[in-house]
Design brief:
11 helices; 4 strands
Length: about 270
């Protein structure tokens, strides 16, 4: 049976004096031998949860969401996703969506973000009144990562290349955006001209496992003129270009296509458009 655990702002505030112990108890079970992050503290830092130690009650409760409605959306989205890809029973952990720098000019309803640390387990950060279509898209994206079919859990930090990242995120984007309305706030930044310019840089680093380089190309770097989240938008285009030439009959097929097939097909199309 699926498990949904909502770590609400009210609960985090109530536990603020023993927050590390509480978070350790809640987050440590999410870690196993296939997890990317090996310590519960890394997950807590990823979502800035320790900030609740310094919040007043009023500040903490400003992050509260409708737990009943969020549970309904999660349960319904899992049912929808399960019709299309292989899923075991899933553990969903919900936490508050705290502000990141790139949220500065965004409506709070699309502060929703997520992380999948291991198979069959996803973590979601949700704002007080989430845009429901964006939330469903994000849940589907993370569930795609969490499928036991996903080959990323056979990789290590030493073998997880930029190319593998494009496959992982691009196939998750392709899947979730075929199910739900596209409300991605970062898609507007990727013109065809910028896409090709970006690819000319990225393909030189396609085999890198250097986290610094991957972070710049995947998440953006304003100092280098690389837009926020451009890697996600690009990865989606890469997978779309492949499927256009090589139609699939089942979304599970995308897990088993070699990353080089996606890269080569995209490069052929990019070269033809120059």
């Amino acid at each position: 049976m699926n498990e949904i655990n909502q770590l609400t702002p009210e609960e985090l505030y109530t536990k603020k004096d023993t927050l590390e112990d509480f978070l350790s108890t809640e987050l440590r079970p999410l870690i196993n031998n296939k997890s990317w992050m090996k310590e519960w503290e890394q997950i807590a830092l990823r979502f800035k949860l320790l900030q609740f130690k310094s919040f007043s009650q009023e500040e903490a409760l400003a992050y509260q969401w409708d737990t009943g409605r969020v549970r309904e959306i999660i349960e319904d989205t899992i049912l929808q996703v399960r019709q299309h890809i292989t899923l075991d029973e899933v553990k969903v952990t919900v936490v508050p969506a705290l502000p990141f720098p790139w949220f500065k000019n965004l409506d709070r309803s699309i502060w929703t973000n997520g992380f999948t640390n291991s198979p069959n387990s996803i973590q979601l950060a949700i704002p007080p009144n989430p845009d429901e279509q964006f939330l469903r898209y994000l849940i589907a994206h993370e569930l795609h990562h969490a499928s036991p079919n996903n080959p990323i859990y056979e990789l290590t930090l030493e073998t997880f290349t930029l190319g593998e990242w494009y496959k992982m995120e691009g196939t998750a984007e392709f899947f979730s955006l075929n199910l739900y309305e596209d409300k991605r706030w970062w898609k507007k930044d990727l013109s065809r001209e910028l896409e090709l310019e970006y690819w000319s840089k990225a393909k030189q680093e396609i085999d890198t496992t250097d986290d610094r380089i991957k972070s710049q190309l995947c998440f953006g770097d304003s100092n280098k003129g690389i837009p926020q989240m451009i890697g996600y938008a690009f990865a989606h285009e890469m997978i779309k270009s492949y499927v256009k030439k090589h139609p699939i009959s089942n979304y599970n097929e995308l897990y088993f296509i070699d990353v080089l097939a996606f890269i080569d097909e995209y490069e052929n199309g990019a070269s033809a458009s120059l």
